[in-house]
Design goal:
CATH class: Mainly Alpha
Largest sheet: 2 strands, antiparallel
Oligomer: single chain
CATH architecture: Up-down Bundle
Radius of gyration: 19 Å
Number of strands: 2
Strand order of the largest sheet: 1-2
Strand content: under 5%
Helix content: 55-70%
Length: 199
């Protein structure tokens, strides 16, 4: 059980922060960047939850709320360097990644095939999901960079999880638009001619 009794500690005033286990590192450390970006992604998913509730998409809202718990797990995973023979550290598991794959397959099954790339937008819910997707992609890139720099101390499963999560958010964005006006598709070169323009 996590117990937080004080919001500020002043221990980070020197530009360092503590990892799980007590080691202090710079707040610009790649590990901090990775789990901090996961936290940012979680906040974006929270905005998508609010949008889903507002759109009456209770099924999407419930799924997103469950994903927020996973994202806290992912942040804890990244904040805890892997050490040989570690005990009960909180790690993203293959089962969590597989759950995302099942959700992708389930929600993608009824969608029409794409004929172009999808522009972020459409309905407010889809726009929020696309924003969350792009931040999750950035979190994935940070986790990949961290794993490249510190492979023995960084779980590979969290990278796979973030990769699948961005795919799921893309599919959910398409589902949200399918319930309203449909996807907004990219028109290559739409504005290249003087008289051209979308619309």
């Amino acid at each position: 059980m996590v117990r937080i009794s004080k919001v500020y500690t002043k221990t980070g005033d020197d530009g360092t922060t503590g990892l799980v286990g007590g080691v202090r590192v710079s707040k610009t450390d790649p590990r901090v960047e990775a789990y901090g970006t996961v936290d940012e992604a979680n906040a974006c998913v929270g905005l998508a939850v609010v949008a889903a509730d507002g759109a009456g998409a209770g099924d999407i809202a419930a799924l997103l709320r469950s994903l927020q718990h996973d994202l806290f797990d992912a942040g804890a995973d990244l904040a805890t360097p892997v050490v040989p023979g570690e005990g009960r550290s909180l790690r993203i598991t293959p089962a969590q990644t597989e759950r995302l794959e099942r959700a992708i397959d389930e929600h993608n099954a009824g969608l029409p095939a794409l004929t172009s790339f999808v522009l972020p937008g459409g309905s407010p819910l889809a726009a929020a999901l696309h924003l969350a997707r792009t931040v999750v992609r950035r979190a994935e890139r940070c986790a990949v960079a961290l794993r490249s720099n510190d492979p023995r101390a960084t779980s590979g499963e969290v990278v796979r999880y973030l990769n699948r999560l961005s795919d799921l958010l893309f599919v959910l964005g398409r589902v949200a638009n399918a319930r309203t006006a449909g996807d907004v598709l990219w028109v290559p070169g739409a504005n290249r001619s003087e008289s051209g323009g979308a619309g």
